[in-house]
Amino acid sequence: MTTYPYPENRAAAPPPALVVVAHGSRDPRALRTVRQLLDRVRAVRPGLPVHLGHIELNAPLLPDTLAGLDAHGTRAAVLVPLLFGRGHHVKRDIPELAAGARLHTRVAAPLGPHPLLVDALHARLTEAGWRTPADAAARRASGVVLAAAGSRDPDARADIVRTADRLAARLGVPVVPAYASAAAPTVPDAVRALAARGRHRVAVASCFTAPGRFATECAAAAPGTVSAPLGTHPALARLLLHRYDRALRTPATTTAPAALAPA
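Structure for Sirohydrochlorin chelatase, as requested:
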């Protein structure tokens, strides 16, 4: 159900469960990483029920998570996509899966774009060895490729472009979005485009939650510095909670995540 009535005495009711919705991956490192991220979310906000559901490939699948919550008497849940843009999974798959649940659900906006996402991307780049160019000549020779999964949905691509623009403002050098699938340019094409502009000191910022095929392929295409997936970075945990809180503050008439402009 996508309507979201609350009892009048909200202080007496338990908080809606936070259900983090991951895509799923055949790489066993992905599931381990996501579970560790959820543990970090629980540590930040003790007492909040935090659960995991997958769209595909891994258990628990989202319908099973929601059915389990209903069986244990949970009345409401906020579904927060562990995704970085408003693609098909956020607009269609997750709401359709939520619609089959017996408890009241609301789908939050995806994680990007947002300053906390930029914090995590910047931190991972720094950990990988990126240093802000010290002078104008070095800045003119530098650039970054923001590697993401990719989507045919123009809103999803627009969200990645906005994240790239925010990261560029933080780094002081151009940041070109690139994609592992379903969209252009690829990481090698983006690297060549920067080189054609005289920017040969190029790093790749990985806009992936966890290790997996796409993250590995994009890292292999990096000409030099490449950051690790965002994983359990504290800013990502805070961002999941921010999306949860914002969904609760949004009027109940807004139930489609496509209508929630990420901020």
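The radius of gyration is 19 Å.
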